[in-house]
Amino acid sequence: MSRRNIIQLTPDEQRQFLEERKTIILSTIDHRGYPHAVPMWYVVEDGAVLMTTYARSQKTANIDRNPKVALLVESGVTYETLKGVLLRGRAELVRDVDVCTRVLTRVHEKMTGSLQPGIDEAMKAQARKRVVIKVTPERVSSWDHRKLGGVY
User: Fold this and answer.
1) 152 or 65: which carries more pLDDT confidence?
2) What's the total number of domains in the chain?
Protein backbone atom coordinates (compact mmCIF):
# COMPACT_ATOMS: atom_id res chain seq x y z
CA MET A 1 0.00 0.00 0.00
CA SER A 2 1.31 3.48 -0.85
CA ARG A 3 2.14 5.99 1.87
CA ARG A 4 -0.51 8.33 0.44
CA ASN A 5 -3.17 5.65 0.95
CA ILE A 6 -1.92 4.95 4.47
CA ILE A 7 -2.20 8.58 5.63
CA GLN A 8 -5.45 9.41 3.84
CA LEU A 9 -8.40 10.27 6.09
CA THR A 10 -11.59 8.27 5.68
CA PRO A 11 -14.70 10.24 4.65
CA ASP A 12 -15.94 10.12 8.27
CA GLU A 13 -12.55 11.37 9.55
CA GLN A 14 -12.60 14.18 6.96
CA ARG A 15 -16.11 15.23 7.99
CA GLN A 16 -15.23 15.18 11.70
CA PHE A 17 -11.99 17.12 11.14
CA LEU A 18 -13.80 19.78 9.08
CA GLU A 19 -16.55 20.12 11.66
CA GLU A 20 -14.18 20.48 14.64
CA ARG A 21 -11.77 23.04 13.13
CA LYS A 22 -12.71 26.71 13.33
CA THR A 23 -10.68 28.40 10.59
CA ILE A 24 -10.25 27.40 6.96
CA ILE A 25 -7.99 29.00 4.35
CA LEU A 26 -9.93 30.09 1.26
CA SER A 27 -7.85 30.51 -1.89
CA THR A 28 -9.29 32.35 -4.88
CA ILE A 29 -7.56 33.65 -8.01
CA ASP A 30 -7.13 37.41 -8.37
CA HIS A 31 -7.39 39.44 -11.58
CA ARG A 32 -3.67 38.99 -12.26
CA GLY A 33 -3.89 35.19 -11.91
CA TYR A 34 -2.26 34.99 -8.47
CA PRO A 35 -3.68 33.02 -5.53
CA HIS A 36 -5.43 35.12 -2.90
CA ALA A 37 -5.47 33.09 0.35
CA VAL A 38 -7.34 34.26 3.45
CA PRO A 39 -8.48 32.68 6.72
CA MET A 40 -12.24 32.30 7.10
CA TRP A 41 -14.67 31.10 9.74
CA TYR A 42 -17.05 28.52 8.31
CA VAL A 43 -19.61 25.79 8.83
CA VAL A 44 -20.28 22.58 6.91
CA GLU A 45 -23.76 21.78 5.63
CA ASP A 46 -24.74 18.81 3.47
CA GLY A 47 -21.14 18.37 2.31
CA ALA A 48 -20.72 22.02 1.30
CA VAL A 49 -18.58 24.57 3.13
CA LEU A 50 -20.37 27.84 3.93
CA MET A 51 -18.87 31.15 5.00
CA THR A 52 -19.75 34.83 4.64
CA THR A 53 -17.89 37.87 3.43
CA TYR A 54 -18.68 41.44 2.49
CA ALA A 55 -20.43 41.71 -0.86
CA ARG A 56 -17.76 44.13 -2.09
CA SER A 57 -14.75 42.13 -0.88
CA GLN A 58 -11.83 40.99 -3.01
CA LYS A 59 -12.91 37.37 -2.46
CA THR A 60 -16.33 38.12 -3.94
CA ALA A 61 -14.82 39.86 -6.99
CA ASN A 62 -12.43 36.96 -7.51
CA ILE A 63 -15.20 34.35 -7.28
CA ASP A 64 -17.42 36.36 -9.65
CA ARG A 65 -14.58 36.24 -12.17
CA ASN A 66 -13.48 32.62 -11.53
CA PRO A 67 -15.46 30.30 -9.23
CA LYS A 68 -12.66 27.73 -8.88
CA VAL A 69 -11.37 27.78 -5.29
CA ALA A 70 -9.37 25.72 -2.83
CA LEU A 71 -9.99 25.34 0.90
CA LEU A 72 -7.39 24.11 3.38
CA VAL A 73 -7.86 23.04 6.99
CA GLU A 74 -4.77 21.82 8.83
CA SER A 75 -3.30 21.08 12.21
CA GLY A 76 -0.04 19.87 13.69
CA VAL A 77 3.27 21.52 14.43
CA THR A 78 5.73 18.70 13.71
CA TYR A 79 5.94 16.38 10.72
CA GLU A 80 4.56 13.39 12.62
CA THR A 81 1.52 15.39 13.78
CA LEU A 82 0.54 17.01 10.45
CA LYS A 83 -3.11 16.53 9.54
CA GLY A 84 -5.18 18.27 6.91
CA VAL A 85 -7.91 18.34 4.32
CA LEU A 86 -7.61 20.15 0.98
CA LEU A 87 -10.87 20.73 -0.86
CA ARG A 88 -11.02 21.95 -4.44
CA GLY A 89 -14.27 22.97 -6.04
CA ARG A 90 -16.45 25.76 -7.31
CA ALA A 91 -17.79 28.55 -5.18
CA GLU A 92 -21.27 29.94 -5.50
CA LEU A 93 -22.15 33.39 -4.16
CA VAL A 94 -25.54 33.37 -2.45
CA ARG A 95 -27.00 36.86 -2.25
CA ASP A 96 -29.95 36.19 0.05
CA VAL A 97 -30.25 38.06 3.35
CA ASP A 98 -32.14 35.25 5.11
CA VAL A 99 -29.62 32.59 4.05
CA CYS A 100 -26.75 34.89 5.01
CA THR A 101 -28.32 35.58 8.42
CA ARG A 102 -28.67 31.83 9.03
CA VAL A 103 -25.03 31.14 8.05
CA LEU A 104 -23.74 34.09 10.11
CA THR A 105 -25.69 32.81 13.10
CA ARG A 106 -24.35 29.26 12.71
CA VAL A 107 -20.76 30.51 12.33
CA HIS A 108 -21.13 32.76 15.37
CA GLU A 109 -22.53 29.85 17.39
CA LYS A 110 -19.64 27.62 16.31
CA MET A 111 -17.04 30.21 17.21
CA THR A 112 -18.48 31.36 20.55
CA GLY A 113 -20.42 28.30 21.70
CA SER A 114 -23.67 30.19 22.24
CA LEU A 115 -25.79 33.12 21.11
CA GLN A 116 -26.58 36.10 23.28
CA PRO A 117 -30.20 37.26 23.48
CA GLY A 118 -31.06 39.93 20.91
CA ILE A 119 -28.25 39.03 18.52
CA ASP A 120 -30.74 38.18 15.75
CA GLU A 121 -31.16 41.81 14.69
CA ALA A 122 -27.40 42.38 14.69
CA MET A 123 -26.91 39.31 12.49
CA LYS A 124 -29.62 40.48 10.08
CA ALA A 125 -28.03 43.96 9.87
CA GLN A 126 -24.64 42.40 9.07
CA ALA A 127 -26.21 40.03 6.53
CA ARG A 128 -27.54 42.95 4.48
CA LYS A 129 -23.92 43.88 3.59
CA ARG A 130 -22.68 40.33 3.05
CA VAL A 131 -22.94 37.28 0.79
CA VAL A 132 -22.59 33.58 1.50
CA ILE A 133 -19.76 31.72 -0.18
CA LYS A 134 -20.90 28.14 -0.73
CA VAL A 135 -18.15 25.77 -1.85
CA THR A 136 -19.13 22.36 -3.16
CA PRO A 137 -16.05 20.11 -3.15
CA GLU A 138 -15.17 18.38 -6.42
CA ARG A 139 -11.83 16.93 -5.33
CA VAL A 140 -10.56 16.12 -1.84
CA SER A 141 -7.05 15.35 -0.60
CA SER A 142 -6.30 14.50 3.01
CA TRP A 143 -3.48 13.38 5.26
CA ASP A 144 -2.82 12.36 8.84
CA HIS A 145 0.84 11.68 9.48
CA ARG A 146 0.02 10.10 12.84
CA LYS A 147 -1.13 7.06 10.83
CA LEU A 148 2.51 6.44 9.87
CA GLY A 149 3.19 5.34 13.43
CA GLY A 150 6.54 7.11 13.61
CA VAL A 151 7.92 5.38 10.48
CA TYR A 152 8.91 7.86 7.78
Assistant:
1) 65
2) 1
